Recover the amino acids of this structure.
């Protein structure tokens, strides 16, 4: 059975109210996204202890999934009436064909070589090199499957720099991939935090799948202390806002590794952190940057 996917710009102040109303009006699902995602105007939402969660993005997009026979205009009008907001004037509609979603998803994820000795291998694949360090990981609810340049950049840094015995904090752990890789590469103690409880659960599950010891929790549950290495693969705005928090977690002489940064944003991020860190030259992959600096 095919479906209809409706995409419309919404007023961010009314987005959540309209989203609930769309579900009441018969939508099968509604998701809200940043209309400026992937640009320098991207505004990530975060809710660290010292940086409470903000409102939705300045420009939001609603993606609405409807039954193939639903009247789109009628559904939008009914939802607008329920929410007490104007009827959306502009929207686009696409047909989503019925597919074997599990098989389709699996076909899009093959083993990913990070280095000659480090691979990411979905559980439905056989490891190409059984002698390599193979990270077993399935695409799921949490960010971080190794297919994105920012994740690869961080993994390559870990592969190049971990000598064994280090302590490491993965701040914004997503799927837990960076923490798990660090444990497999010899780190002595690995912690990970994320503001999303589902990410914490996924990270626990992935650590068990890979038979490594790692501790994952929400930010407010993380014990005080500093680490040899802090890795944060998030996005530019929260990285800038959390500079004192992240810097405080790195011991003197330790490393801070940052990614989720567009190439044109690298200098702005380094400028915020230079009170604490001396940075190596940025590493770039497909327009994304990884920064690595040592704490004075």
């Amino acid at each position: 059975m095919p479906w209809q996917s409706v995409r419309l710009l919404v007023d961010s102040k009314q987005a959540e109210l309209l989203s609930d109303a769309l579900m009441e009006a018969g939508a099968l699902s509604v998701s809200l996204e940043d209309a400026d995602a992937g640009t320098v105007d991207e505004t990530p939402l975060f809710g660290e202890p010292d940086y409470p969660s903000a409102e939705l993005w300045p420009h939001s997009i609603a993606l609405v999934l409807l039954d193939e026979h639903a009247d789109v205009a009628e559904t939008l009008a009914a939802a607008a009436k329920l929410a007490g907001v104007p009827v959306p004037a502009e929207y686009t509609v696409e047909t989503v064909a019925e597919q074997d979603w599990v098989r389709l998803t699996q076909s899009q994820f093959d083993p990913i070589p990070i280095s000659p000795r480090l691979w990411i291998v979905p559980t439905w694949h056989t490891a190409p090199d059984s002698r390599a360090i193979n990270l077993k990981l399935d695409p799921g609810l949490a960010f971080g499957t190794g297919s994105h340049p920012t994740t690869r950049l961080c993994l390559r840094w870990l592969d190049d720099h971990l000598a064994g015995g280090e302590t490491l904090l993965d701040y914004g752990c997503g799927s837990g991939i960076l923490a798990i890789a660090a444990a497999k590469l010899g780190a002595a103690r690995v912690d990970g935090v994320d503001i999303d409880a589902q990410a914490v659960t996924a990270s626990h599950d992935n650590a068990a799948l890979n038979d490594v010891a790692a501790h994952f929790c929400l930010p407010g549950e993380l014990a005080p202390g500093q680490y040899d290495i802090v890795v944060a693969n998030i996005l530019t705005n929260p990285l800038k806002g959390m500079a004192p928090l992240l810097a405080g977690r790195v011991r003197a002489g330790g490393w801070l590794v940052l990614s989720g940064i567009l190439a044109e944003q690298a200098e702005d991020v380094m400028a915020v952190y230079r009170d604490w860190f001396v940075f190596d030259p940025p590493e770039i992959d497909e327009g994304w940057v990884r920064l690595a600096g040592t704490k004075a």
Summary: DSSP finds nine helices and 15 strands in the chain. The longest strand covers residues 250-262. The chain has two domains: 3-98, 104-295.
